[in-house]
Known about the structure:
The chain is α+β, with helices and mostly antiparallel strands. It has helices at about 1-20, 30-40, 75-90, 140-150, 275-285, 300, 305-310, 325-335, 335-350, 355-370, 395-405, 410-415, 475-490, and strands at about 50-55, 60-65, 70, 95-100, 105, 110-115, 115-120, 155, 160, 195-205, 210-220, 225-235, 240-245, 250-260, 265-270, 290, 295-300, 315-320, 390, 420, 440-445, 450-455, 465-470. The chain contains 13 helices and 23 strands.
Amino acid sequence: MIIRKIFLLSLIFVFSFSSFSQSLKNKDHSVTNAIKKLQNDKDMANAGISFYAIDLKTGEVIAELNPDLCLKPASTMKIITTAAALEELGATYRFETKIRYDGYIDTITRTLHGNIIIEGGGDPTLGSKYFQSTKNKTFLNDWSKAIKDMGIDTINGYIIGDATKYSWEMIPPTWSWEDFGNYFGAGPCGLSIYDNMYTLYFNTSSTVGGNTTITKVEPLIQGMTFDNQVVSAAISDDQSYIFGTPYTYHRLINGKLPRDKTDYEVKGSMPDPALFAAQELFVKLINDGIIIKKEPTTYRLLKEIKLTQSKKTTLHTTYSPTLAEIIYIVNNNSMNLFAEHLLVEIGIKRGKVNDVKSSTGELEKFWLSKGMNTGGLSVNDGSGLSHYNYASAKQLVYVLQFMKQKSTNYDAFYNSLSIAGERGTLRRFCQNTAAHGKVFAKSGSIRKVRCYAGYTTSKSGREIAFAIMLNNYNCTATQSRQRLEEIVISLVLLEL
Length: 496
């Protein structure tokens, strides 16, 4: 009897060991085969690859390759930022921008003996093109009405843009020089406006190498000048770059634009959003018949501590869309500026810090507190534009798994992701394939970097969280995307 029991226990042990040794990640199936193909691709000979995919219900690893290897995540960094923002601030959180005044109002002469202050609350959506509620400058009408309703016809002081909620250093210190003059390199400002962006319109020559001409700038920014060295070329996309730093008003533009175009649009980042917001309200009030004795300015320019500490009365508050709506734009449209604002808000909420550099440390601490193994994780911005960011596929999947299994904000997070073949940055990804409409994910791409992280459901019904990261490939960007499409399609086609 004892011998029989020992024999049965031995069989169970052997069976269990055999089952473990043949776990899903060790079997030949659509995903492991696709990963092997990528690994053996001659264009990946010098590349760094990190891949990790798990079954969300069982926790079983479906397939992996260098899952702990930390690589540049590009814009997949945004899922690390947006998930933390949802947890720290909540899906219904709204930013506030307040119109306030200091001094006093003489009701007889209808004169404000003081200043109108636009108190920025870190709202990245003020006047943004991305929301119906923020378009068409309606906030300026609200602000002007609030001032006139107080019986003010004359302002003896300034219109002041107050961006003091955030530090003056708008640009993350590790961003590349070629990035931050362009629209995607706009930095977070305590008082942002119009996505901190302006548009240049170019007429280009029909001749390759011919000159280009800037025909207009919208919105027109007082004092801005441009050294235009852009030439026409036989290309189909924008290959120009704008160079310039925050708070300076001269821009160098070089590179190439498609030839024979009229009013071809190139977008740049505003030098001083807070000052421009003050100028916009100044012009609006003048047009509405209010006399203003001093030119618009900011607390940064005034450098008067007494003014920033003066007693103020609130006239009007402008509220942003909800955080869930903002995060939809961050992840679906890969909006860098909004992501950087969220990063600083995390810093303010957690560590009472208001600059990008300090806030990155708070973001890392947040994920450590949630149980992530943060070894090798290096956060240097919120958007992924920095080439100094590092994360692993396993860390990205940890975020996805955490949001699915432990967060009450999962729906807002999940719905913010792009859909393969249908919308956002994935609208051309896996189009007309088995993965079309079945993958919700965030993409990421900067020079020689392509990454994807998100959710899908396999043919066998497994709910999968995955991340695939590719750095320093030896093929074109389009070819790198096609290689990674095969990996994602293999997840959808998994039959085990």
